[in-house]
């Protein structure tokens, strides 16, 4: 009798530890086998703490954790220092997390530590870092970055009437996507609008710091009093360009660039930013985590699969790069449609 009770108790304990993967994890995949150990730990390492863009990304990562019953959360350095970000990844490797998601400040400097993570058997998914695709599991892009840059360049040219002096920002010269947008924009404008002149040797850097961007915009206006246009490949710089133009009541200098509705909305509606572009950071964080979970569960990432967020319903798989189609264009007519 005692032996029977022991057997029954063991079975009760065993069944009580079983957890089942959500049926919605991948639309077309069969139900995943039960997990009997622990919750997966999936961590997003964002570029910088205290930035509206990555505050929204955290929303998506944490929502994913709730939806799929995994331990998903986000961390980030207090500055845009690539070394600090790499050290955070080192700490996660030492901790032995199941998956690391990362939006690198400098993909090149992140390469050694991500190789180490892979050697330790940790799933690694990057976002905004195509150059790292060969060494990680997958890189997620919200769209083709060259297309995004051309759209920005076209908006600036139309706002400026196709001629005049302009300059602008990236978060940092090491940020791969920012430079992809800039280079595609430059190539397009040189070809299609030869009367437009890029006046600085290279784009300015703001390191995703609004105070730094605000001060630099003021300096640029003094340096180039005949400036006709500005772009921002960082949400911080575009927003600060709009703020400075509003403070000076200057609608002669046309502004376009990357920003969020919550950051640039008032400047767009008041006519101090002509157009902003973005994608939903929360969705990118959510989809990155879903890719990692699929890998952890042994499920394949396939061309055309549905990754459960708008713009990612039918992704394009190019080797180890996953492309969505999730750009958002913010104008006076569209900006109020969004609440992030």
Automatic annotation (TrEMBL):
GO MF, one example: carbohydrate binding
Top-level taxonomic group: Bacteria
Keywords recorded for this protein, A-Z: Signal
Localization: Cell envelope
A Pfam family reported for this protein in Swiss-Prot or TrEMBL: Peripla_BP_4
Signal peptide start and end residues: 1-25
Domain Periplasmic binding protein: 42-300
CDD domains: PBP1_LsrB_Quorum_Sensing-like (cd20001)
A GO cellular component annotation in the UniProt record: outer membrane-bounded periplasmic space
Family: Belongs to the bacterial solute-binding protein 2 family.
Protein name: Periplasmic binding protein domain-containing protein
Originating organism: Leptolinea tardivitalis
